[in-house]
Amino acid sequence: MWNEVAVSVCQKNVLKGIHGDQKNRKLLSCVFGAILHVAVDIPSRSWVMTTLRPNGPSMMLSPGIGSAVYILSDEAALVYQQSEGYVGQEKQFTYRWDDPAFGIEWPTTTPLLSERDNGAKYL
Q: What is the DSSP letter of 90?
C-alpha cells in the first residue's frame, strides 16, 4: 500500500508548503520535536491545523489535499509515507504559505522558506 517512506528534519521556524499532488495518499507523523501541520483543501480553500508530536496524532491526506508544516521546536522530524511514491516537483502543486485566498493563521509572519516556497504562486 505504501510505496515510499521519507524523513524530513528541519529547524525551528522553517515553513514548508503548501505542497501536494493529485496521485498520492499521504500519512504524516512527527517522530521528534513539534510540528504545526496544515491540511489544505485547495478547491474549497478550507484548512485544518493540527500539532503533531511523537506518540501524538498522525495526519492522513487524500490525493489533491495540500500539506504545509511549520516547525515549532528547536528541531523536528516529519516521517511521511506516500501511496504511489514520489511524483517529482514538476507534477506537484505548490502555493504560497501566506496566500490570502486560504487565510491560514500562522504563528509567524517571518518563517524560514526554501527557494521553492519563497517563489511559490498564489492561488
A: G
